[in-house]
Amino acid sequence: MSQSIAANPDRLLPADPGTRSIARSLLERVQDLPIISPHGHVDAAVIEHNTPFPDPAALLVSPDHYVTRLIHASGVSLDRLRAGSATDSREIWRTFVQAWPLFDGTASGYWLRTQFESVFTLGADLGEMSADASYDAIAAKLREPDFRPRQLFKDFNIEVLATTDDPLDNLASHRALADDPSFNGRVLPTFRPDAYLNIAHPSWSANIERLIEAAGDGATGYSGYLQALENRRRYFVDHGAVSADHGVLTPATLKLDAAEAEQIFELARAGKASAQDRNTFEAHMMYQMARMSVEDGLVMTIHPGSFRNHHQPTFDAYGADTGHDIPFATNYTEAIRPLLQDFGTAKDFHLVLFTLDETVFSRELAPLAGFYPSVYLGAPWWFLDAPDAMLRFRSAVTETTGFSRSSGFIDDTRAFCSIPARHDASRRIEASFLARLVAEHRVSEDRAHELIVDVVDSSPRRVFKL
Amino acid sequence: MSQSIAANPDRLLPADPGTRSIARSLLERVQDLPIISPHGHVDAAVIEHNTPFPDPAALLVSPDHYVTRLIHASGVSLDRLRAGSATDSREIWRTFVQAWPLFDGTASGYWLRTQFESVFTLGADLGEMSADASYDAIAAKLREPDFRPRQLFKDFNIEVLATTDDPLDNLASHRALADDPSFNGRVLPTFRPDAYLNIAHPSWSANIERLIEAAGDGATGYSGYLQALENRRRYFVDHGAVSADHGVLTPATLKLDAAEAEQIFELARAGKASAQDRNTFEAHMMYQMARMSVEDGLVMTIHPGSFRNHHQPTFDAYGADTGHDIPFATNYTEAIRPLLQDFGTAKDFHLVLFTLDETVFSRELAPLAGFYPSVYLGAPWWFLDAPDAMLRFRSAVTETTGFSRSSGFIDDTRAFCSIPARHDASRRIEASFLARLVAEHRVSEDRAHELIVDVVDSSPRRVFKL
Amino acid sequence: MSQSIAANPDRLLPADPGTRSIARSLLERVQDLPIISPHGHVDAAVIEHNTPFPDPAALLVSPDHYVTRLIHASGVSLDRLRAGSATDSREIWRTFVQAWPLFDGTASGYWLRTQFESVFTLGADLGEMSADASYDAIAAKLREPDFRPRQLFKDFNIEVLATTDDPLDNLASHRALADDPSFNGRVLPTFRPDAYLNIAHPSWSANIERLIEAAGDGATGYSGYLQALENRRRYFVDHGAVSADHGVLTPATLKLDAAEAEQIFELARAGKASAQDRNTFEAHMMYQMARMSVEDGLVMTIHPGSFRNHHQPTFDAYGADTGHDIPFATNYTEAIRPLLQDFGTAKDFHLVLFTLDETVFSRELAPLAGFYPSVYLGAPWWFLDAPDAMLRFRSAVTETTGFSRSSGFIDDTRAFCSIPARHDASRRIEASFLARLVAEHRVSEDRAHELIVDVVDSSPRRVFKL
After folding, report:
1. Which chains touch A (3 or more CB pairs under 8 A)?
2. CATH pick for B165-170+191-463 out of 3.30.720.210, 3.90.1300.10, 3.20.20.210, 3.20.20.140
3. If both were cysteines, with which of A63, A214, A289, B310 could B326 make a disulfide (CB 3.0 to 4.6 Å apart)?
């Protein structure tokens, strides 16, 4: 092959030559801007301790359930793909390379290919090398001192990286990084209390007892619980957090009075809550989280609509995050209304709404974000953070809300080395979308040069209060 | 800037040069055809009395909740945007001009920019002038005698303009215009009985008492109510009305027997109807409206799926139509069935179905319109009456139903000066869609020249019996 | 017209010259591959007996409810379009030709036009000839010996053609064709038990009594019923069947214990089952069908989400398949879960999921097929088996699941002469989609040449175990 497609400077840009040329020039404007990643799942300790990355399979295959799921779909047991199994890393890598053709056309394939090209400089497509050759080439890179997390953080031009953390995490790594004069990036914690709000969570009871004990200021029961949540949020704010994230089944919100809430809370504590109670309590706690966000300033982000761990036997054998979280239909308009009635116009309240159901982009989210000062459109997420889907998102929301109401790109990843590829893809798509509007004389080219900076750089800073 | 994008003759046309050239030629075929606007919200009295338009802010900003909502989302209180508030018009205009960059890429921005260019001939983009300069330039135009409604009606090449009217309106303005030999346009009333059919409407009780009193032919109760509706529809027909429009929560329809209907009617009159009763009665009245349409020939149009006045505090402070009507999921297939069982093939019955939920375009509306002789596809409406959304509509429905089953463009606007911009945008999109089919050898170019005339001109005449 | 659009070698290919040129080369790679049609509705007896096709109207108009529905929508009574009515064939054909302009832009129009050009070699568009001239030209062709089904089967380059059959069909035609040394194609039966599983089906009771009698091995009641279904599936397998197809209201699945199932079964037999029972039993039987598929290897295909016979008066007058099967919203994630819990990773189980609701492509089906080894994406079906809709499908699913998880094209047709046009259209769309990915440097051109063979040829062989 004359040139790797991953190295092509025009990759992801529109085919029409006139539009592509506009897109190129827009892309140039933002290509070297720093990466701002306000939501993701990298482990702060890895950066604190500058832990060397493990072998290629343990870095790129085993922990990435977007990669393992598609290989699993082709009939390969997860046993053969998971670290800690009988299979060794090189064997996992061989299995992955054999499955590599499955990834053509996928977002995961794009990110991987871009990493192989620009981070690991393999120089050829994975399919053109032997599995052992690519394994050895990447493994060699991983042993180089420049391939430690802190150097990559710098090389990747990351300015802000948010992690996702348990409310009782002591955030020692975040503190250490903030206090380290030799580290210039910002690694910020994110408050993620799902396992303390969802009473059906297997460890909810244990979690809340620990929470109340640790931070309830001596109060017990429901009021101690609320107090502890408020205190831990403060703790996060004090350690640099800018947002609280909520993975919920639906975006339902509800204001219960304290007595009603307390009653469900105690039922749940006694193990007697029904499925209806679970939904009611989560909806109420979303309302409470909004109230607290108004008070402490944490941006509130909501990720609803995923049926987690769809295949029980796989969950039983391998646990969560093993590739079978399946989206379902989401409806925001009525569900989010109780929250917005009371906080939709609250000063400095920022509420970022995500969806895995594309139908709400034009139908509900754009109209909501086009009226409520608090509401921002979450960038396309899981399965939708791909070129065509990101273009569908822009097409669906822009005519109603313009460019000012979206969150900026969210990589949402635990795959540290994929971060530049993901942000690069997003910038190419923003350039492509804007280039079409310019080519169709819907936005002037001068203005498009301002807008692309706004969506890539200013939006995440503004929305996440960075 | 060398040339304003609003003045570009190729605006909204596809970027591919070959397709654009076909689109240009199709557009030329229809660019000078008269405007037919079978559904909108202009006030007939303004045309009757040829009332001069007020100042720029009171014409273009304050009454247009598609404009104010987006400025509101950016954090500006509606107080600062509404006529009659402490703020004067020039101050409102300054606020608007400051917010103008928010509108890039939006449909509202496109219509405004086109008006500034072609109606007010500003000669520069709003962002390139001071707010006072643009205010003064537009205000000066508004004082010119040629800027009175009747002259603009003529200059805009409007042939038919339908208004939206209360069933008890005496339609004096419509009558006066019809009788005025110096006025050549057609200004037609539209029967809009929502506030008489929805028993949850705050003034329903008062409305129906007035209705029965005025037109019940002496009958009382439910039968007087039906009689009065029939009579007022006749009155509208006699004053030129061609359609009756229905803004409903859902497209549910239901045939109650007279006793059941009467029972709910009396419960509602006594203030004792439940939410369920409200839905049942509205569904039943949709059935009744269809029956009356079959009898009196008024085209029936249905606009479902909007959660009106989503933010109660804003509604309490500023009333309806203040930017927070938020769509939600709509399902037509089962809901509309009772009506279609009895009237779906009724002679000369025309039923135009609109949606704010794009998912029903391909799934339900195109299949319904592709079988029932009565069913026509309402053009993309609110939030969807924008270039990309209109293309998605055509793409979603055409492969199933072709071009013969759609209503033609509906501007649905109260912003009189935006009417040419809206129809022009629609024609450009129809040309763009057809040009792609020609370029892909799916429709011959000769046939496309016929089809564009059909969709722009013949469809609205045929569907709305003009 | 210089050249018929149906004869244009670039028809359906993208307008952008660079992308089109890639698409052309990809199309060339697959244009001459044999047709594999794993699901459709051709009558095997017609091929067995090599029955001459009847006249043009009886071949192309009357039996095709995708054609008659759109003419019906234009106000023509079905009486004037149906064989066996007072109207003769030539009169039906004249009505059809008069309505021909309605089909511009539709999938049905495209298939018809392609047939007129390439099967019947009319040499001009239908609209450019008199109705009688086209009738006579086609009728003359139909009298030629080369226009008999077996010769066309060969000329169309059909390798595999699956029919859809009643479980009690003796499959004599399939057997005869398999045993006929002069016939080289494969004509395979498909097990379609809807009328034996849906207890609301008007002839369910009679059907199951016949079934149990014929194949229950002497057992009676529910166990005889299950046994008979298993036996008939075996019979189909022995006669070459590779799949069992299920037209269901929703994709609900449920595992009842035998006692619960038997109870509903007996209630239904006694005519006392409720609507809820109907749904429960169908869901349970979908579970049972999956169990049997795991055991006997038949690929399981599910077609949910159609409201059959929407217009009761038309159904009463003309029966089923008369153009008013209307889709509605479908949700797979929770519905299909009980089945997937137990069989989602079962060895060699293939489950092909279809939808008439596009929203589940990206939201549910791609994520399901991207994890479960059993799940395959059904190709776009009814109303969605059209160029733009097929492109939307590829765009919606590929970024999540790549190319390996789809069924390959399904023509699902009873219109034998349209089969080549349908497969040709699909190949053109696959080439168009892949060409865009190549032009955007997302897939290499070499790889695209492999992928198009995979999606056109290898996928249906792999998924349907051919």
Report:
1. B, C
2. 3.20.20.140
3. B310
Q: A83: pLDDT confidence band, cut at 50, 70 and 90?
A: confident
Q: Tell me how far CA of residue C121 lies from CA of A458, B153, C32, C137, in angstroms.
A: 61, 53, 19, 9
pLDDT in tens, A294-310: 999 999 999 999 999 99
**What's the pLDDT score for residue A87?**
67
* Residue A291 Rama label (left phi>0; alpha psi -120 to 50; beta): alpha
Check if the beta carbon of residue A363 is closer than 8 Å to that of residue B330. no
Q: Which of C71, C328, C382, C426 to mutate to test the interface with B (most CBs of B within 10 A)?
A: C328
The set of residues, in sequence order, having a beta carbon less than 8 Å from that of B145 and lying 6+ positions away, is B151
Q: What CATH class does C54-147 carry?
A: mainly alpha
Q: Is the complex ipTM more than 0.85? A: yes
Contact A277, A260 (CB under 8 A): no
Position A179: which residue type? D
Q: Give the number of A-C residue pairs with CB atoms closer than 8 Å.
A: 142
Task: For residues C74 and B237, give the distance between their C-alpha atoms in angstroms, rounded to a whole number.
Answer: 25
Cβ–Cβ under 8 Å, residues B357 and B328: yes
CATH architecture of A52-147: Orthogonal Bundle (1.10)
pLDDT tens digits for range B202-228? 999 999 999 999 999 999 999 999 999
Which of these CATH numbers, 3.20.20.30, 3.20.20.140, 3.40.50.300, 3.40.50.150, describes C201-463? 3.20.20.140
DSSP C106: S
For residue A369, what is the enclosing H or E element? helix A366-369
Residues in a beta bridge with A186: A160
C254: amino acid identity, one letter: L
Residues paired with C283 in a beta bridge: none
Chosen from A440, A450, A454, A459 to mutate, greatest number of chain B CBs within 10 A: A440
Q: B205 to chain C nearest CA, in Å?
A: 36
Nearest to A383 among C331, C340, C367 (CB): C367
Residues in CB range of B133: below 8 A, 6 or more apart? none
Option in A324, A329, A383 nearest C400 (CB): A383
Q: Minimal Cα–Cα distance from B436 to chain A, Å? A: 14
Task: Report how many Cβ contacts below 8 Å link chain B to chain C.
Answer: 144
pLDDT reading at B86 higher than 70: no
Report the chain B residue with the minimal C-alpha distance to residue A368.
B326
Taking only the tens place, the pLDDT of each residue in B104-123 is: 999 999 999 999 999 999 98
Q: What percent of chain C has pLDDT over 70?
A: 98
Please, what is the average pLDDT of chain A?
96
Q: Hey, what's the torsion of the CAs at C161, C162, C166, C171, to 10 degrees?
A: 60
Residue A141: its pLDDT value, please?
Answer: 96
